[in-house]
Design brief:
- The chain is mostly beta strands.
- It has a domain of 122 residues.
- It contains one helix and 21 strands.
- It has a 20-stranded antiparallel β-barrel.
Length: 301
């Protein structure tokens, strides 16, 4: 989970292609126990001599997530600070546990977007169709797999049936993904990602020139993570570090400048319920108040 978030910083367009049909579970949100729903409200706050005073509800960060009894996300409703609806997302899951439809509703409760998913007999997502609010086709995606259920190719099509992008995937003998290649609508290589070395991601342009390299290091108990981004000349240009508690919630996130000084600091404090889910989350950003977050849980048992 942590590494996925980290890698997304630089290669989100690759990852987003892969998770279009991924069912989201409780563990994806670091939730413990049989959670039925969680309501989150984010507030402004002030702090004087160590005493925290909660303020007004913030414009963002207010939502309710609902899960089925298998721990799969089935609905997310976002709210404005006055409690009015901002958006609603519905995830329809079949008896096999596959997400077969996604519906996105706007603040006026009208349908904004719909995605339908298709699967083979082995449960692999072999394709999806994205529809506009008026029901017209927006995009089609077709996925191809090997006999080990590893995705080999993903092709995106325009409403007219023309290829917009194509991605191919390679694996080592152990089944670990080691390479992704992205091609444009004309079939010309656009970008390549190389994961062949553990803990490293290398990005190359169409001519095979290194654009950047990302190195991820974890300590033994996975409570500390360091990410360093190098440019094509091997010079470190970005550094980020994370510290986690025993439940893998982030305690500290730091960003460093090229000269090694800290240019961004995000510190978190938590209070937990008896199920080990946090109910209060206090953020400090660059030593100033960030958000005071309250969460209310409903459990199946």
């Amino acid at each position: 989970m942590k590494k996925t978030i980290i890698v997304l910083i630089s290669i989100s367009f690759f990852m987003s292609n892969q998770v279009l049909s991924q069912v989201q579970h409780l563990e994806d949100f670091m939730l413990q126990g049989k959670v039925k729903s969680v309501l989150q409200i984010s507030y402004e706050y002030s702090e004087h001599f160590g005493e925290v005073k909660k303020g007004a509800v913030k414009h963002n960060g207010n939502f309710r997530r609902s899960f089925n009894d298998k721990g799969q996300l089935i609905e997310q409703i976002s709210y404005h600070n006055d409690g009015e609806l901002r958006s609603k997302n519905i995830y329809i899951i079949n008896e096999e546990g596959n997400q077969i439809e996604y519906q996105e509703y706007l603040s006026n409760e009208s349908l904004g977007l719909k995605i339908s998913y298709n699967y083979d007999k082995r449960g692999n997502n072999i394709g999806l169709h994205i529809y506009n609010s008026d029901g017209t086709l927006k995009e089609k995606v077709i996925n191809t797999y090997d006999d080990k259920d590893n995705i080999l190719e993903q092709v995106r099509y325009s409403p007219e049936g023309k290829i917009s992008t194509r991605q191919t995937y390679k694996y080592n003998d152990e089944g670990k993904e080691i390479e992704i290649n992205q091609f444009n609508s004309e079939g010309i290589l656009h970008l390549k990602l190389d994961f062949s070395i553990n803990g490293e991601t290398s990005k190359y342009d169409a001519d095979g020139n290194l654009i950047e390299k990302i190195i991820v290091k974890d300590n033994e108990d996975k409570t500390n993570t360091e990410v360093i981004v190098f440019n094509s000349n091997g010079w470190p240009i970005e550094k980020r570090t994370w510290k986690y508690d025993s439940k893998f919630n982030t305690l500290e996130f730091l960003e460093y400048s090229e000269d090694g000084t800290i240019n961004y600091k995000h510190i978190n404090e938590y209070e937990y319920d008896e199920r080990e889910n946090y109910t209060i989350h206090l953020e400090r950003i660059n030593d100033k108040p960030g958000s005071y977050i309250e969460r209310t849980f409903e459990y199946y048992d």
